[in-house]
Every structure is written in structure tokens, then in C-alpha cells.
Amino acid sequence: MPRFGALFLHGAAVGVMAYGFLVIKTSPVDQLIRAQKGGYSLYLTIVGLGLAWFTMVMSLGCDLLPSLTALRAAKRFCLMISLPLEIAISTVYWSLVLLFPSVILQHTSGSSVSPDVPGLLYIPFQLDLCIHITPVVTLLADFLFFEKKYTKKQVRIGAPLAVLTSGACYASWVEYCATYNETCEYLYFLPYPLLTENPLDVRIGIYAFVSFIAWGTFYLANAIHS
């Protein structure tokens, strides 16, 4: 029999995160995102949301089929990527949106989403709850309450490799798509103003810094795991 607490956590997380993505898909922002080369895959929040959702789906599978050791191993590998990524996303997003919102939020002026409304395009709190709070909270809860901590070898070798590889792939993809999007009439040819308004060498530093946050916070989360 699956553990009720784990089953409820995983099921609720899957539902809430799926709802958040559907809200984005049915909003005016969807048109702007899909018009760019790379679409939703340019936005780290959406990438993290997708990985977190997939990890929770695999967690549900482990709850219902606990004897499948291969599924459990695959879930823990996904968790090693999605957990540090979501911690980094939440850390960076909430720090910037509260202190320096203009470097993380899109400007409405000049945008096809809302060209007549000046200022910043703030995300409604209900949507923030689905895409910037639920993933990190549920992944952390799953790891701390229902998973074993990772071994020293996994933390020192596996986690850095997973995080750095993921970060390099994301950065390469975003920069590749930017070579196409910068020729179009978009307010930002990179997914966030912080990236658009800085040269390539600074952007590389930003990618590296976020990757370091991801690995460092994963190391900390594993250290406090009982």
C-alpha cells in the first residue's frame, strides 16, 4: 500500500503545477512566448516547472509501484536535477522580484501582450503560487520526508555534473535562440531583461552563478537531511 502522505503530496503537486502551466497557456503571454524561437523552453521557470512536474509524476509511479527499483532510481536522478534547479529558480526569482523587479519582469510597454499599459508585467500571486512556490516546496518536502539523503559521492560528483551540464545546455540553447530572436521585433530577445541588458561575458557569469547557487543549495539541503 502506498504511503498516504507521499501519495497526497505528489498528487497535489502534479495537479497544481499542471494547472499553473495551463493558466500560462491560456493567457495573453502565450502568444508572445510562442512567437519566439525556443518558445517556452527559453524560460528557466518553465523548464524547472516541467522537470518538477515530471519528477512528481515519477514519484506517483513509485508510490503506486514501489517494487520497481529502476523507476525509483530514475526518480532520484530526476530529483537530483529538479530540486537544485527549483531552489535556484525560487531564490533568484523572489530575491529579484522583491528587490529589483525590473531586471526579472518583462516590461509591458512595446510588448504585444499589453502595449498600452506601462510598467512591469507582474505575475498574479495565484500563478506565482503554482509555478514559483509549489515546485520548490513540494520537491523539498518530498526529499526531506520521503527520500533518503544522497551519498557523499553523489553530492560531490553526481550533483555538480548534473547541475553544470543542465546549466550549460540551457545557456547554450538560450544564446542560440537569441541569434534568431534579436532580429525580430521583440522587446527582449533573451527571456529576461537581466540577460538582454548585459553583454555575453556577463551573461555567462550569470549562468555560472545560478548554477553555483543550484549546486550549493542542493549540498545544503542534503546536509540538513536527517
TrEMBL record:
Transmembrane segments: 42-65, 77-100, 120-145, 157-173, 204-224
InterPro entries assigned: ADTRP_AIG1
Statement: the UniProt record of this protein carries the keyword Transmembrane helix: yes
One term under GO cellular component: membrane
Subcellular location: Endomembrane system
Classification lineage: Eukaryota, Fungi, Dikarya, Basidiomycota, Agaricomycotina
Name under which the protein is recorded: FAR-17a/AIG1-like protein
Keyword presence, Cell membrane: no
PANTHER family: ANDROGEN-INDUCED PROTEIN 1-RELATED, AT02829P-RELATED
One of the Pfam families matching this protein, by short name: Far-17a_AIG1
Keywords (A to Z) from UniProt: Membrane, Transmembrane, Transmembrane helix
